[in-house]
Design brief:
alpha/beta, Rossmann fold, 4-stranded parallel sheet
């Protein structure tokens, strides 16, 4: 039996140190770690973990939200783990015990997953209500633009475009500006951009 850790943060700006500190105390055999949203199950390290899973293996996570963000995904994940005759342990969600066929654990899993989903849905609903109210009061500005008119990379991209020596693809590669940003800026400046490969 192997002890396997799984660590996930949603973005580069987030810190996984707390998860590492907790899991390192367990003397794990291997840790899978990745930086990706939990909204999808198409995660390279998670899929690698599941594919390498052997009977008797235990997956350790700091809490359920690290491995899944939706009730539906949680149930399909648990099904895969059970089929492989392995189990999952959450340090925070101590009620979770899939090491044997425990009907209470299955029941609690359903209830807690539903509560987590409800909490996320309520947060989204409050955000929408807040945005709608801010729009009504004329206070909502939307997402701040990533590139201002004075952004060096964008200015260089526009200069290269005006010179006409490079394709849009090459300009974006050189300046690290996305095509959509460049096209949007050209459109805003009433430039007619040429067709490119």
């Amino acid at each position: 039996m192997r002890k396997i850790g799984y660590i996930r943060v949603s973005s580069e700006g987030q810190n996984s140190a707390r998860q590492k500190e907790q899991l390192n105390k367990l003397d794990l055999d291997i840790i899978y770690e990745e930086v990706i949203s939990g909204a999808t199950m198409e995660r390279k390290e998670l899929q690698k973990l599941l594919s390498d899973l052997q009977p008797g293996d235990a997956i350790y996570i700091t809490d359920l939200t690290r491995i899944t963000r939706s009730t539906k995904d949680l149930f399909s994940l648990v099904e895969v783990i059970k089929k492989k005759k392995a189990f999952i342990v959450s340090l925070k969600d101590t009620w979770l015990n899939l090491s044997d066929d425990n009907p209470y654990s299955d029941f609690l899993l359903t209830v807690m997953a539903g509560v987590n989903q409800l909490e996320r849905d309520l947060i989204r609903m409050r955000q929408k209500e807040g945005i709608a109210l801010a729009k009504k009061e004329g206070k909502f500005k939307g997402r701040l633009p990533r590139y201002t008119d004075n952004h060096e990379g964008l200015q260089y991209a526009l200069k290269l475009y005006d010179e006409g020596d490079f394709s849009i693809n090459k300009i974006c590669e050189l300046t690290k500006i996305s095509k959509s940003t460049l096209y949007r800026t050209l459109n805003k400046n009433n430039n007619v951009y040429r067709r490119t490969k």
